[in-house]
Predict the structure.
Amino acid sequence: MGTGTRGLLTAAVTVVCAVTVLAAPGTAFAAPKPTPKPTPSTSTVPDTGAAPHAGATPGAVPTPPPDKDLEKVRERLDRLYHDAAVATDSYNAAEERAKEQSARIVALAKKIVAGQHKLERLKDQAGASARAQYRGGGLPPTAQFLLSDDPQQFIDGAGTVLNGQRATTKLIGEMTRTQQELREYADDASAQWRKLDANRKAKAAAKKRIKRQITEAEQLESRLEKRQKARLAELERQAAYKAQTQWLDTGILKEIDGKASQQGRRAVAFATAQLGKPYVWGAEGPDSFDCSGLTSQAWADAGHPIPRTSQEQWRQLKHVDVKDMRPGDLIIYFDDASHVAMYVGDGAIIHAPRPGRTVTVAGAGSMPILGVVRPDA
């Protein structure tokens, strides 16, 4: 096997091994009873290992903010968790791209190995032709044909030479094409590898942003006294109730009367079965979910796979008017499409809200609606 052949084959095997390592890693909505939250001892919020605020005394009790600032605390927490959701979408998108590129590299590596085997077979054919020529006295078929005194041998030889020339031309052409394909496969694999490396870095950067935002939110909440945490939770409920009431006051629910499709009913049933499970960023089940992990898995269970992230769900799925939505449709929230929930009827949604919360039922209008998409349009 030549040096070039060994290089291509070694590269193919290396690519497969490397990718294996990388891949391992009708009626108005009424507020429901709150779903159980994870206890501190079983919290599913990722351990960021972040250090305490600079200047803080180890073991000191953090000073709680004044009660009059609790609304500002709520708004700050909303921003922090929103930013974490944006970073989570970036993380999930990079993860999906990395999976696709890993699969592409493995497929290319297999093509390189198969192409190398094909090239070896063609070389064997060329060698067999050379050996046959040697056994014929070292003269090529053309020379033997021209030197023949036998008329019949001359006629037979003409056909043999013509067939031999055609076979040789075909063999050379096929070897050239195979070598070109191998070069193209190798170039493509190299490009995919660079993209994979870029997406690994994007995942790492997004993960760092997520942990930073969640850590800051946890530190902010840790400064609250028990009564303040209760008051903060009440402020969150009031804000959601106010937004939902304003949405319902538009009369929108009178216009929404769509019936769920068969697949939509299956998706709603899946989402309903996940109620009470914790939010974990980047999670797709079965024990925890983030917002788009819940919706994508629900529709996958319904037999209709959809994009993994809320932004891609908004970009790729069919848009429908809010008044035309039906159970199973997905409501996309915020101007940056950073959150998604499943509409389940009667003005309600099921969603995975944020770290520290569980999959729950909420009002469809409790957050700013960007639009509605339908997976099975």
About this structure: The longest strand covers residues 339-345.
